[in-house]
Amino acid sequence: MQDQNKIQWQRIDWTTTLFLTITPLVCFVLVPIYLWYWDLQWSMIVFTVVFAGLTNLSITAGYHRLFSHRTYEAHPWVRAFWLLVGASAFQGSALKWSADHRKHHNKVDSEDDPYSINKGFWYAHMGWLFIKDSTDPNPKAADLEKDWMVVLQHRYYVAFAILTGFAVPTLIGWALGAPVAGFLFAGALRIVLTQQSTFCVNSLTHTFGKRPYSEDVSARDSFWVAVITHGEGYHNYHHRFQTDYRNGIRWYHWDPTKWTIQLLALFGLAQRLRTISKHEILKARLQIEERRLLLKGLSKEKLAPMKERILAAGESLRQLRRDYESLKVSVNETSQARIEQIKLQMAEKKLDFEFAVKQWRIYLRAKTGTFSS
Ligand SMILES: [Zn+2]
Ligand SMILES: [Zn+2]
Hints:
The protein is an all-alpha fold. The protein has 2 domains: 270 residues, no CATH class; 91 residues. The protein is built from 16 helices and 2 strands. The protein has a two-stranded antiparallel sheet. The longest helix is centred in the last third of the chain and has 36 residues. The protein is globular, with a radius of gyration of 25 Å. The mean pLDDT is 92. The site of one zinc ion (ZN) has 7 residues, from helix 3 and helix 5.
């Protein structure tokens, strides 16, 4: 028993553990004291909120969707910005973060998942960070090791983190006439809050919500979790289709990370935004819903034609759209007549597709009581 305890203590990563416990404690004590004795000026509040938002985006749009999953390509200035501000989050280097995260996707829910939810909610949230051997001390990511900016940030990570995480906010605070507030609010408090937002991705998104795209993993989709994680709450979709730059695929899904990447693309600062086709997404969804219906005792023979009708109509619609797009560029008299014909066919096929989907949804709701959107 004694030996076991000794081994457990030896496994603790003291630097990370002390940082992750002392920083929130310091904020918990000093923030109320500061607010009691001094006024916090508006400029400091705005600076802290904007810096916190950018810190989170550096993790979600930078560390996660760019460096870990390569879901888009970014201009060198954008990559440098994500790496500099990302370091200020005190979540490790982009190389280490990405290597751990890729392992999480490859080994999700297994013993080798660095932050497996099966080891407990608290462990997945931040407990894994307290243990030295929960991750590889020498992270490997061949593609990232070829990127000199990523390598530089990894090599001098601690210096970058202290500089961007504490020194810069203190200096800006000093310029605003309140260096202590800069250190405390835009430095320490920002770090604590943005870290907690990221930690929620590993705990809450593997606990609360629905699983519309894959029931083979614990990851779930939840609007509420998306709100506190800058869009990472649509985690079931993300685990099913990790190469998509979006996590919330519908326009009304709360995904500020997706909107940021789209905005960067608009200004030519991001390109080759990767998405999964609607057809693939629909197929994944239908597969899960079919499985639920089969579990309710419905026969495969009954479901197969309904499912086929949706997929066939969807595929024909896609083909017609492709024809339409290619004809649109060469406008002459013959193509004009064909375009009109295709438009009509598209309208018909769309109706057919929508009818088949509606029929499926009514059926699903009647038999399982669940909605499909
Ligand atoms: Zn991911
Ligand atoms: Zn996950």
